């Protein structure tokens, strides 16, 4: 019997790198050789991670990957947090890739659904971000990773700056398992402002033809916040933030939470809550937080990623944000999700559909969107052992061995912007499961994890319900004139209100006629710039002035 | 109104660093100045992280910290994964520290209990590792971190080698929030073998008087594995690993799981399971895995930390372990716990007590031990969305919106080594809660997360039970002659067996008389060395030969 080799991965990597040696200058390869590089460094069937979070995309490398010869490279197993760009799916049509494991597919969700139905793509599974990163170390260890950096020095040290995002957790999985780390650089420089990832971990650097794609996904123009959203925000502040004494929080993307952020310095101040609630945040640097920061509400913010236009403001607020010695922010999506799961009192999100039981999903007919970080942050980590007042306030009274629970809040208007009811008997996701042949219904947040639902009608305190029937009744009570809501009746509502399971605005001393836009600390993008002392620099598409 | 400062942390850090500038040579300070250094860099009331995982301890810095003048430094809020060394508690007696947040306190658990009772120490809370790291970014952001590295170069770049452990996640939390990063180095060198943490992130390096403390905590001598443990291992392999088609796994520390590791190449092989189960592991490099690795059972291992004596073996097995270009392993406790939570089919642990409901704890009277990683890995991550055959095999039949569940297995003999029953009506932890004034009972793994219990009597498939009464009956059925077990009766047992809720050895075709030590692939430390081709080098205390 011949002895087996224990270095097959290393040997394969070395053979690949030897092949490209003629086109390399140290770790560097010319932009125009990128296609040939990938054709030599990637083998058919390889597991390939292509970086793309919410905001930041390795857009040069994804374009190059889409241009390789499918005779040479085919049937790749792609692992991608975010399926965002057309070429992310083109590679499945040309046969370069055949299998996909992913987390989020916002802009491409319709096309993904179609490609699964057509059999063009084989979906491994949908993941929450942290779960996908976890598998990079266990059963989805990559052969090649394609990532993006702002600046790279001649030793291959990477500076990712404010948009560190998922780069470190991806690179580490390959660098220490004989995978190949390929980096696209916006700029190659003599000295990086700081080292975010050591050059030791990097195999190949290529200067990109243009800077990586970066989207200001977390910017919400206050002008588009409605009075209904303001009403919901007031209810949430009184009926949840104040009631439960919430200290640590994540806000999802959306106008509902933007309204809350802009109500803290006004309505929150009136209620005397300043210094009492939400000092510590795990959230992207959303511009609508600027007034709350400037007026002393927010003490610290750790972020998953950056936000276009906030760079200079952040650099001037190092007491609040995570900023390096070089003066720019460091983000970290893996650690941010870890914090979002285990260190927070509360997650506040939104969704497209909620079923009569309280399960919610953004997967609707024809759109396999994935869920990003929501399932992770919107779940109750049963491994948590530390107690805070908010968490402990959800402890069941009747169980001596009981413990607290994370507040998981869904904020929705009863009808969506498409005029369709948000509250439904059955999620579209049930149908999508069948079409896409998924193992389970793609639910974003399960009923059992959902502790509160806020609508324009009121708040349902689901954690207080004792049975599924009571939970359904609580949901019906705040579901307005949707088919689900129409099942509620006055007697049931009165009973739920009396027992504190449902609160209407009047129960919270919230007055509908006070829910005016004038209550927002900032009503326009210009107001945000003023609050920031001119340090916030909104992206062009959010500027109405010149 | 004067403008507020947004750089108070940075200013405080700079002032501290200025004070020590006279004793600094670049980032370096002489060993004999370490005490003065800490007295200048730490302020009363500071939040201080002192590194110490399971195995690796920043032992030089902890000794120096215990020697500072309590008039100068007092009332520190210590954040420590592991309370392992006497001086970790001495600092509370001298008043240098007053508050503690921690995860694990194995060797010091009795003394901690006493100090809490005496009021010498104020315990913030007990955490699982990942939860404690999460808070470093949200509500326990440190002012100073004290960590350990193997080698440091003149730019302050750190090489942590196989024992990377928790160093990166600790350092990042301070380096990017104007905290101070102080490193003890085993060795200062011209060039580190690789960069594990960039020098940019490091403020001060001090050469330690001796290498950091490192314990071979995961080494189990096969000689001490009993035939009862072999029987339990055979049952587990048939009744859990094979039955559920488990692919990805973590084994806790202990002889029970060591037995399983040594049965795979023998009993597992007989059953024809090779290539069918457990290729991918998240586990420390335990020597008892060597035969399973050598005989081709194990494909990949990612590790939280290193293990003394395994260095050379690992270096020669890069296909299996996470190894850097320099040829040595990289571990990572934060990513390991992330993987342990989200990427695994199964966690197999052990405990000191299990109550009649199935809650388990290692906290017993007079011992506040903490739980390390068990609550994290031994919990069902409700944010998980990907499906595997093992996970899906626990999906409830009667719920169209249901999903799978992580297998969380407790393996215990019905009586502990102290002759006390493991199965009890009430956990000692209930009493400890009162004594230590904890918010909740310090339960390690809750009943609701526990899917299987294995004893020498049989296996209880708790996930199949429909009610708490049935769950209790299943536990009684395998609890032997403990007071809990004596409540079981033959009729109940027959019914549970018929319904597949309990399996006895004969139900699994496991024969007690085959459970012999000769069935172990290695029966001594020497056998493990032979299996490793001489590459494994056991620590002195495990060597019976010269």
UniProtKB/TrEMBL annotation, chains A, B:
Q: Which domain of life is it from?
A: Bacteria
A single Pfam family it belongs to is: Mal_decarbox_Al
InterPro entries, from UniProt?
MadA (IPR005777), NagB/RpiA_transferase-like (IPR037171)
| Gene3D superfamilies assigned | Glutaconate Coenzyme A-transferase
Annotated region Disordered: the residues are 378-399
Please give the name of this protein: Malonate decarboxylase subunit alpha
Q: Which gene encodes it?
A: mdcA
């Amino acid at each position: 019997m011949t002895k087996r080799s224990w270095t097959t991965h290393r040997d394969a990597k070395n053979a690949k790198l030897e092949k490209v040696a003629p086109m390399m200058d140290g770790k560097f390869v010319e932009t125009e050789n990128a296609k040939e590089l990938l054709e030599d460094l990637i083998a058919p069937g390889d597991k390939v991670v292509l970086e793309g979070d919410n905001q930041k995309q390795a857009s040069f490398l994804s374009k190059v990957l889409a241009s390789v010869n499918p005779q040479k490279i085919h049937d790749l197993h792609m692992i991608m947090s975010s399926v965002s760009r057309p070429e992310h799916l083109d590679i499945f049509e040309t046969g370069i890739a055949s299998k996909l494991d992913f987390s989020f597919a916002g802009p491409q969700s319709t096309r993904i659904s179609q490609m699964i139905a057509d059999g063009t793509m084989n979906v491994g599974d949908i993941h929450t971000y942290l779960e996908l990163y976890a598998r990079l170390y266990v059963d989805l260890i990559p052969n090649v990773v394609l990532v993006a950096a702002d600046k790279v020095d001649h030793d291959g040290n990477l500076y990712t700056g404010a948009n560190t995002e998922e780069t470190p957790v991806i690179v580490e999985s390959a660098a220490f398992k004989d995978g190949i780390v390929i980096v696209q650089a916006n700029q190659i420089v003599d000295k990086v402002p700081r080292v975010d990832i050591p050059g030791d971990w990097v195999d190949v650097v290529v200067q990109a033809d243009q800077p990586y794609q970066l989207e200001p996904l977390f910017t919400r123009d206050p002008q588009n916040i409605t009075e209904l959203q303001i009403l919901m925000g007031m209810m949430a502040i009184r009926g949840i933030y104040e009631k439960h004494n919430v200290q640590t929080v994540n806000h999802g993307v959306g106008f509902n939470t933007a309204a809350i952020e802009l109500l803290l310095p006004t309505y929150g101040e009136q209620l005397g809550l300043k210094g009492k609630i939400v000092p510590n945040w795990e959230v992207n640097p959303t511009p609508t937080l600027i007034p709350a920061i400037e007026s002393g509400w927010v003490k610290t913010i750790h972020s998953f990623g950056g936000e276009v236009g906030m760079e200079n403001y952040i650099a001037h607020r190092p007491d609040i944000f995570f900023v390096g010695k070089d003066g720019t922010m460091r983000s970290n999506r893996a650690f941010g999700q870890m914090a979002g799961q285990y260190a927070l009192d509360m997650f506040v999100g939104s969704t497209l559909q909620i079923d009569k039981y309280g399960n919610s999903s953004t997967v609707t007919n024809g759109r396999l969107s994935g869920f990003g970080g929501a399932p992770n942050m919107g779940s109750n980590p049963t491994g948590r052992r530390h107690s805070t007042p908010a968490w402990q306030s959800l402890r069941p009274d009747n169980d001596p061995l009981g413990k607290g629970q994370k507040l998981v809040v869904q904020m929705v208007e009863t009808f969506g912007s498409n005029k369709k009811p948000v509250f439904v008997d059955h999620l579209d996701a049930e149908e999508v499961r069948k079409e896409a042949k998924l193992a389970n219904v793609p639910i974003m947040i399960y009923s059992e994890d959902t502790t509160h639902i806020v609508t324009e009608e009121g708040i349902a305190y689901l954690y207080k319900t004792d049975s599924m029937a009571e939970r359904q009744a609580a949901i019906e009570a705040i579901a307005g004139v949707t088919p689900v809501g129409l099942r509620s009746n006055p007697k049931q509502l009165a009973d739920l209100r009396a027992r504190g399971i449902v609160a209407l605005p009047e129960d919270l001393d919230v007055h509908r006629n006070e829910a005016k836009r004038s209550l927002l600390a900032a009503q326009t993008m210009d107001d945000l710039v003023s609050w920031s002392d001119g340090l916030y620099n909104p992206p062009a598409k959010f500027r109405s002035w010149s």
